[in-house]
UniProtKB/TrEMBL annotation:
<keyword id="KW-0238">DNA-binding</keyword>
<protein>
    <submittedName>
        <fullName>Helix-turn-helix domain-containing protein</fullName>
    </submittedName>
</protein>
<dbReference type="Pfam" id="PF21351">
    <property type="entry name" value="TetR_C_41"/>
</dbReference>
<dbReference type="InterPro" id="IPR049484">
    <property type="entry name" value="Rv0078-like_C"/>
</dbReference>
<dbReference type="Pfam" id="PF00440">
    <property type="entry name" value="TetR_N"/>
</dbReference>
<feature type="DNA-binding region" description="H-T-H motif">
    <location>
        <begin position="34"/>
        <end position="53"/>
    </location>
</feature>
<feature type="domain" description="HTH tetR-type">
    <location>
        <begin position="11"/>
        <end position="71"/>
    </location>
</feature>
<dbReference type="InterPro" id="IPR009057">
    <property type="entry name" value="Homeodomain-like_sf"/>
</dbReference>
<dbReference type="InterPro" id="IPR001647">
    <property type="entry name" value="HTH_TetR"/>
</dbReference>
<keyword id="KW-0804">Transcription</keyword>
<keyword id="KW-0805">Transcription regulation</keyword>
Length: 197
């Protein structure tokens, strides 16, 4: 067997483990899913899982990284379809709310992510993906005088926290929760208040 074939088999095994773990974690949550169930669903052995991951927490981290990367890509793509910086910010923030409330995403990203990895590790992943786009957009708008001059880092953290909380609240879907459009309207007005006059 050639090195290339082995590398493709290893990659396929890893991909199957991440795919099935993601599906199970999204359906039932991290705590309710065991490793035997994951390897059974992926059609691999426990030894194969331990070849790629130290355990369930590391596998969950790989799943969360994939989810965070997808959300970041969606945010960047939505922003990229707009010409003006302000419109890019609005499109990216709206896309984050839509993407983060998609079935299966909110449980992995917003509920289990901080609980399993810990706040600091979860926040580092968030910053590496969607929060990075937010910081870049806000920094450019402050530098360009579109947003009132202020420190970008605390502004980024405040808006990121507000959007994460809004996404979690929307995805929870409890009675009394505002629909997406209503929540977006409030967030859009909040963002508008940052603009320089």
């Amino acid at each position: 067997m050639t090195q290339g074939v082995r590398a493709r088999q290893r990659a396929a095994t890893r991909q199957a483990l991440v795919r099935e773990a993601r599906r199970l974690f999204a359906e039932r949550g991290y705590a309710a899913v065991g490793l035997p169930e994951i390897v059974g669903a992926a059609g691999v052995t426990k030894g194969a899982l331990y070849h790629h991951f130290e355990g369930k927490a590391e596998l969950f981290r790989a799943v969360l990284e994939e989810v965070q990367r997808e959300i970041g890509d969606r945010v960047a793509a939505a922003a990229g379809r707009r010409a003006e910086g302000w419109d890019q910010l609005l499109a990216g923030c709206r896309e984050f709310l839509v993407a983060a409330t998609a079935p299966g995403v909110q449980r992995i990203m917003l509920v289990d992510g901080p609980a399993v990895l810990g706040w600091h590790a979860w926040r580092a992943l968030d910053e590496a993906h969607s929060a990075r786009h937010l910081a870049d957009a806000l920094g450019a708008l402050v530098a360009g005088g579109v947003i009132v001059e202020q420190p970008v880092e605390p502004l980024t953290r405040l808006l990121s926290g507000a959007m994460n909380e809004a996404a979690l609240w929307l995805a929870n879907g409890k009675e009394g929760a505002a629909p997406l459009e209503e929540t977006w309207g409030v967030l859009a007005r909040l963002l508008e208040s940052l603009r320089a006059r």
